[in-house]
Amino acid sequence: MNGLPRKLEEKEQVTGLGCPDCSGVLNAAVEGPSQALHFRCRVGHAYSAAGVITGKEKQIEESLWGAMAALEELMVFLRELVALGEAGTLAEEYENRARRAAEQVRKLREVVEKNVPTALAE
């Protein structure tokens, strides 16, 4: 699937991109004398190309941090259940999952640290 239609026109066309705010499908069109590329979703969120890039970068950042937080919380919770004796016969499974979650957090942290947003012209 392409992100943009093969031929951009003044009439809005469906893209393969989701809206950074609501995840609805973005439509693209060229507008004005400069034929600048503009995007709009079904509910009316509107963006320039730079705005879409910035929105996607923000989504990536938030998603990575959210995944790390959820994994860390799961890891701590599972280990606390084991320590309190609440895991019962599943204690080994809980501890194994907690170890996997800790490794996934480590890998995600590496991705977050290496993630550099797209540089945009001012």
Topology (SSEs and partners):
Blueprint: E1 13-18, E2 25-31, E3 36-41, E4 46-48, H1 49-83, H2 91-114
Antiparallel strand pairs: 1-2, 2-3, 3-4
Helix pairs in contact: 1-2
List keywords for this structure.
about 120 residues; 2 domains; alpha+beta
User: Gyration radius, to the nearest Å?
Assistant: 21 Å
Largest sheet: 4 strands, antiparallel
Helix vs. strand class: alpha+beta
What is the straight-line distance between the termini? 30 Å
How many distinct helices?
2
In total, the number of strands is: 4
Secondary-structure element pattern, one letter each: EEEEHH
The proportion of strand residues reads 15-25%
Unreliable spans are none
Q: How many structural domains are formed by the residues?
A: 2
Q: What sort of overall outline do the alpha carbons produce when their principal axes are compared? A: elongated
Widest sheet: strand ordering? 1-2-3-4
Approximate helicity band: 40-55%
Average residue pLDDT: 94
Give a nutshell description of this structure.
This protein is an alpha+beta fold and 122 residues long. It is built from two helices and four strands; from the N terminus they run ββββαα.
